[in-house]
Amino acid sequence: VANEPKQASGDKSKNGLLCKVCKKYYLYPANKKGKKLGTYWRVGSTITTVFVKSNAKKYTGTWKIRYKSTIKLSYPVSYKITKIIFLTKKGKNSVDTIGKNAIDSTVKSVKNFNKTKVKTIGENAFGSTKITKLAFPKTLTKMGKNAFRKTSKLKTVTGLEKTKLKSVPAYAFAESGITSIYLPSTVTSIGENAFRQDKALKTVKGLGSTKVTSIGKYAFEETGITSLALPATLKSIGNEAFAMMPYLKTVSGLEKTKLTTISDYAFAESPLIESLSLPTTCTSIGYGAFMECSSLKTLTLNANCIVSGSSSMLSQSGIANISSGVAIKVPNSLMSSYRTTYPWSNYSSKIAAI
């Protein structure tokens, strides 16, 4: 079997075999069929564990190994990778990049990831895997879209707040099982759908202390978050960014942001929100922005958001099912204009001075 990997030496790899194709990973069969015959493995071996050498620079995944080995080996082994272990030397591993689609969807455990020097996690790198927890290395600065998408078994992520991550990209953690996340202060943007449908997500720490200027559409839609603190640097939010959040009750810091527009359906169908205070920079409210916010008791408009015509947020469909007892507070100098301009005039009895 000319292209069979040679037996590993050097790093402690539990008698794994050094892959001759990539020369960076040790492959190890965990089942009984994986017993070696000399330096070769029995026919029918199933490789379940990958050991990444401590001096490797990039982990690109096993797909190349599978592809090349399956063609060249007379007696190919099969692959069902469930565990990846980053071998360490003096407590460290030099891998600085996790490539696109690198981690097999069958992987359940990634050990010593936080001991690497990873700066970049590629697109869909951990997407659809079965990992349950992950500790990030503090060197992380960049993450590709879909990086942890559809990781429904992923409950715990730690160390992210100590990284230098600059952006949470589109779909980064969408449809995952995470229950809480702590964002680093270096983050400046949150992409569309970043946490969408993370129904177990209850807590987002650190957001209010970031330098985030934009939050993309659907970013937090259908999450289980109970409260949010927004950063003063925030300038834009996409459509439905905070829509359909059934447990969201408190939104703080909104009045201190630099938002000029509350986008369409921004907070729609978030039934527990009790109070919202818009910033003085906000002069436009999108269609249905607060639709079906049935517990909303106070809506404070600190600037001139008067827009006449049926496209305004306060058309009947835009304010549908809002609490009948809601108080709309506006600057005293604008109170008369709000009360007499359609469709705000429909709610003249609810409009009062701040």
Structure description:
The protein is mainly beta. Helices cover 5% and strands 24% of the residues. It has helices spanning 63-72, 335-340; strands spanning 6-7, 17-18, 25-29, 36-37, 40-41, 46-52, 58-59, 78-86, 97-98, 109-111, 120-121, 133-135, 142-143, 156-158, 167-168, 180-182, 189-190, 203-205, 214-215, 227-229, 236-237, 250-252, 261-262, 275-278, 284-285, 298-301, 327-330, 351-353. Helix 2 (335-340) links the parallel strand 27 (327-330) and strand 28 (351-353). The longest helix is centred in the first third of the chain and has 10 residues, at 63-72. Mean pLDDT is 85; it is low at 1-15, 31-41, 70-75 and 308-313.
Distance between the termini: 82 Å
Shape call: elongated
What is the β-strand count? 28
Class based on secondary structure composition and strand pairing: mainly beta
- Which residues form runs of ≥5 with pLDDT under 50? 1-15, 31-41, 70-75, 308-313
Give helix % range: under 10%
Order of helices and strands: EEEEEEEHEEEEEEEEEEEEEEEEEEEEHE
Task: Describe the protein's topology.
Blueprint: E1 6-7, E2 17-18, E3 25-29, E4 36-37, E5 40-41, E6 46-52, E7 58-59, H1 63-72, E8 78-86, E9 97-98, E10 109-111, E11 120-121, E12 133-135, E13 142-143, E14 156-158, E15 167-168, E16 180-182, E17 189-190, E18 203-205, E19 214-215, E20 227-229, E21 236-237, E22 250-252, E23 261-262, E24 275-278, E25 284-285, E26 298-301, E27 327-330, H2 335-340, E28 351-353
